[in-house]
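=== Structure Prediction Worksheet ===
Name of assembly: unnamed complex
Input type: mixed (protein and possibly other molecules)
Chain count: two
Listed entries:
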Amino acid sequence: MSFASPPTTLARPTGLRLLASRTFVAGAVLTGLVLLTAVMSLVWTPYDITRLVVADRMQPPSFAHWLGTDHLGRDILSMIMLGARTSIAVALVAVGIGVGIGVPLGAYAAARGGFVDEALMRFNDLVFAFPSLVSAIMITAIFGPGAVNAIIAIGIFNIPVFARVARAGALSIWPREFILAARAAGKSDIRITAEHILPNIAGLLLVQASIQFALGILAEAGLSYVGLGAQPPMPSWGRMLYDAQTVMLVAPWLAVFPGTAIMATVLGLNMMGDGIADALDPRARGRR
Amino acid sequence: MMTFVFKRVLFGLTTLVLASAVVFAMLQVVPGDPARLMLGMNATEDQVQVLREQMGLNQPLVLQYLDWAGGLLRLDFGRSYTYSVEVSELVGERLAVSLPLALISLGLSTLVAIPLGIYAASRRGKTADAVSMGAAQIGMAMPNFWFALLLIYVFAVWLRLVPAGGFPGWSAGVWPALKALILPALALALPQAAILARVTRSAMVEVLGQDYIRTARAKGMTARSVLWRHALRNALIPVLTILGMQFAFLLAGTIIVENVFYLPGLGRLVFQAISQRDLVVVQSVVMLLVAAVILVNLLVDLSYALVDPRLRGNR
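=== Predicted Assembly ===
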C-alpha cells in the first residue's frame, strides 16, 4: 500500500541530524567504549580475578596494575571490565522486560481504548506510587539478593514507564491520515500497530530506553552497594564501592575508579538519549 | 473546583487501598512462618500453634488483611519481631532522622537548581548555559552513594570539618545533629538538583518562546521582570511535578545514603529488618513511603489548580 506509507521517524534526515549532534556522538562514543570493555572482558582481562594474591593487596596504580589492586589483591582494571558486564547485563535485560511487556500493553491500550486503557492507566498509577528503589529493595529482600532478582525488581518498574510512553506516542499517531488510509485499505488494528504505529514511535521508545538503561545501571549499582544485587565473587561496580569504603582511609583511589565507571556509562547513555530526542524534534533543540 | 478536589482525593484513596493490598500480598509469599521465626528453632509445634493463634495467622487472609489495614489507620503497624517494640515507635524514632534529611536536601536542591535553571534558560545557547547544563549532566550521572563517599573523603577524612558518619541525636543539640546531616543531605541533593535544573531550564525555554512573552517585552518590560513575573509562573507546573516526585525519591533515596553514613534513619531500619527477616518492619516502612508518595502527588495535583486557574474546571 504505497499511498499509505508513513513518514518513518528514524529515516535518513534524522540519522544525519544524529551524526551532526555533538551530544549524541560524544554519548555514543562513551557508551561504545563501555560496551567494548564489557565485550572484551568475555575473552580477556589483564589478570584473573579469581586468583587472590594477598601479597599484592591495595597497591596504588602502577604499570603492572594500571588502576591498582583491592583488599584481596585483585586487579581493579580487570574487576571494572567484568563489572561492566554485570551492570550492562542487568540494566539491559531490565529494559528488555520493560519494552517487551510495556510496549505491547501501551500500544494495545491506545488501539482499543475504553476499559483496557483505563485499567492499564490505573495499574500504572499504582506502580508509580511505589518508590522504585524501595520496592526493588523489598523484592530482593523477599526473594533473596542476587543479580536475577535485581533484574526482575528493576524490570518490573520499567513496564509502566514504557507502557505510558508507547500509549502516549501511539495516541498521537492514530488520528493521522495515513492511519485512516491504512484502515481504508482493510488492515487490522494489530497490523496497523505493527506496520505504522510502532515504526513511528520507535524514536520515542529509543529515547526512553536510553534513559531507563541509565537508571538501571544506577539502580544495579545501588542495590549491589547495599549487598542486594550481584553477589560476590561476581564483580559489580556497586559492590566494589562498598569494599572500597571499608579501606578508604588507606586506599582512597579504590573508591574513585568504579564510581567513574558508573558515571561514564550513565553519562554516555543520557547524552545519547538527549541527542536522539533533539534529532527527533529539532524545534525542541537546546530546550533540554 | 470542588469536584476536581473530590475526584483527586478519591483517586488517591483508591490507589492507597490497592497499594496496601499489594504490600500485604507481597509479604504473604515470603517463605517461612513468622511465628516460628519469632520463637526460634527450639520451639515445639504446640508453642508455634499458640503463637500463630495469638498473631491471628490462622484466620482467613482477607480478615488478616483487614486487621492489618485497620491497624494502619490507627497508626498501629504491629510489633517488631526482633526489637519487641511497637513498629510505630521504631518508625517514629527513625523518621526524626530521615525526614529532616529529606527536607534539608529538598531545600538545598531547590535553592540551587531553580535559579540555575532560570539563569541557564535566560542565557540559552551561551557558554553559561552549556557549562551549567554540562554540570547538570554530570550530577545526574553520579550515583549519590558514590558522591557521598567522595564527600566523606574530602570533608571528613581530609579536611576534618564534619563527622564521617553516625548521628549524635537531636538531644545532643541542633548544631551537632545538623553537622552530621549536612554531607548526606548534599549527597542526596546533587542528582535531584541536576534533574530539577534541567526541568526548570526546559520549562523556562518553552515559556520564553511564547507570544505573550514577546508581547510583554514589546510593551517595554525589563528582561528581569518578564523572566520573573511572566515566565516563571507559567513554567512552574512541570517544576512542581518534579519537586513532588523528588520528595518521594528523597525519602526513598535516604535508604542507601543513610547506609553510607551509618545514620539511624528509616533506611538503616529497613536494612537491619531485612537481614533479621523482620518483615513487619519492612512492610510498615514500605507502606509509609507509598502513602507519602500518594499524599505528595495529591498535594502537587491540587497545587496545579492554585497555579493554573484553567485546570480547575475539567479535570
